[in-house]
Write a structure and sequence with these properties.
- The protein has about 425 residues and is α+β, with helices and mostly antiparallel strands.
- It folds into two domains: about 15-170 and about 225-315, BirA Bifunctional Protein, domain 2; about 330-420, Rossmann fold.
- It has 15 helices and 16 strands.
- The strands form three sheets. The protein has an eight-stranded mixed β-sheet, with helices on both faces. Strands 13-12-14-15-16 form a five-stranded mixed β-sheet, sandwiched between helices.
- Strand 15 (about 390-395) and strand 16 form a beta hairpin.
- Helix 2 (about 45-55) packs across helix 4 (about 85-90) and helix 5 packs parallel to helix 9.
- The chain binds adenosine monophosphate.
Length: about 425
């Protein structure tokens, strides 16, 4: 029986890694321009971090974590998201930096044991940012603008930004109560999952994809009507700043997101062509998380974006970059001795920065020329018996079939002249 990649995982094949690396380069570029520093945290953490950081009542902690024990019976979990780990590292290494704010970003694989479907995997890659140390709504606006401008740079311009405020520890409990009271009389008609969540985490009911739950929650009171003055003012300022920098958004009072740690601002960026898994990225403010994880009270905000869904959008729209990887030269040896000379020549030229291809199967000239043609190289260098005897190489220009003999010694100079380097 053939062994296949585990359920919910996939291989990135050579034709995709080109696009993947293009996206990676753009990630590092934009974060650098916006003044963010990269952190790389372990791929597993003590389970407790995620239980405290993400929240016991979330889908992720309740049923999606890959958890295992080490030999000392300590419970470890493959990271299902990046924020908790970044916050842990921020506290552990004291990155608070005497009163200034920390602007951090990360990129790497995350693991969630979800039902795999298009745009939903068990190992997937996220990049994201966390800003720790400022309550200012300009930081919320910076995070949202960065995410939107990132997609715009890649050519994805028709985005929907959904925006909401889910209040703070002052005003959210009131809303929570209102919501429970409103939905309790209908509880028997809710799906089993929502019935279970009604008393524990009622905001998540607004997120349920089940059609009948959607109908039952259509007329719920909206959180925007219960925000305290501080949250209301923060949200108003954020909207004003976004308006001033040409970021279009939709107010969506039903947007709650899947993490317990959010306070005030939450947002999602959607691309229409992704079907039901249409969120490219999501984020929000988490003013209580650092303290929850054992640090000093520190406000924070961040977002996380999925690589796979972005790849899907770019591929579907043919927004893939033309990547130049044509060889500068294809070297074709004819005979055993010539193969050795050509092999060392090949290595030497590569070390000097040239992209050089050669045959490694001892094939005929005809077959080698065919490969050279397929590779798109403009130049082929042929070394046969005569050439070897005279320390020469026969250069063939592929577009005109013009040929000339040059000395092997002069090959690097020839390439420099040809490519005007
Ligand atoms: P979340 O961390 O759940 O807020 O998700 C943020 C972004 O990560 C989503 O908008 C997706 O682009 C991506 N994402 C989350 N879960 C998965 C998954 N299981 N497979 C692929 N991408 C995911």
């Amino acid at each position: 029986m053939k062994i296949q990649a585990p359920k919910g995982t996939y291989d990135l094949l050579p034709n995709q890694t080109i696009l993947w690396r293009h996206i990676e380069a753009q990630i590092h570029q934009i974060f650098t321009e916006y003044g963010y520093d990269e952190v790389r945290t372990p791929m597993f953490e003590y389970t407790d971090l995620f239980q405290r950081g993400i929240g016991d009542t979330t889908d992720i902690v309740e049923k999606e974590m890959f958890t295992f024990s080490d030999r000392g019976e300590r419970s470890l979990t493959l990271r299902p998201e990046g924020t908790a780990s970044v916050v842990r590292a921020f506290i552990e290494h004291n990155l608070a930096n005497q009163g200034s704010i920390a602007k951090l970003y990360y990129y790497g694989p995350m693991f969630r044991c979800e039902a795999p479907q298009a745009g939903r995997f068990r190992q997937f890659n996220q990049f994201g940012a966390e800003v720790l140390g400022s309550k200012d709504p300009r930081v919320d606006a910076e995070i949202i603008s960065l995410a939107v401008n990132f997609y715009r740079r890649l050519g994805v311009t028709d985005l929907d930004v959904n925006l909401n405020s889910i209040g703070c520890t002052e005003c959210r409990p009131l809303y929570r109560q209102k919501l429970i009271e409103h939905l309790r009389p209908k509880s028997e008609k809710l799906c089993p999952n929502c019935q279970r969540r009604l008393e524990r985490n009622p905001l998540r009911l607004l997120d349920c994809k089940n059609e009948s739950c959607r109908r039952l929650t259509e007329d719920v009171p909206l959180i925007t009507t219960t925000l305290c003055p501080d949250c209301g003012e923060h949200f108003e300022k954020l909207c004003k700043i976004l308006d001033s920098c040409d970021i279009k958004y939709k107010l969506n009072p039903r947007l709650v997101r899947g993490f317990d740690y959010y306070t005030k601002t939450v947002f999602e960026v959607l691309a229409g062509d992704l079907g039901s898994q249409n969120a490219l990225c999501g984020g929000g403010r988490y003013d209580g998380l650092v303290e929850e994880c054992g640090g000093k009270p520190t406000p924070g905000i961040g977002f996380a974006a999925g690589m796979e869904r972005l790849m899907m959008v770019l591929e579907a729209r043919s927004l893939t970059p033309a990547v130049e990887k044509r060889p500068h030269l294809y070297l074709a040896p004819l005979g055993d001795e010539q193969q050795v000379i050509v092999f060392s020549l090949c290595i030497k030229l590569r070390e000097a920065g040239w992209i050089v291809e050669t045959d490694l199967q001892g094939r005929s000239l005809k077959a080698q020329l065919k490969s050279a043609d397929k590779s798109g190289t403009p130049l082929v260098g042929i070394v046969g018996e005569d050439e070897l005897r005279n320390n020469q190489i026969l250069i063939r220009k592929m577009n005109t079939s013009e040929q000339e003999l040059i000395s092997i010694e002069n090959l690097a100079g020839y390439l420099e002249h040809f490519y005007e380097k």
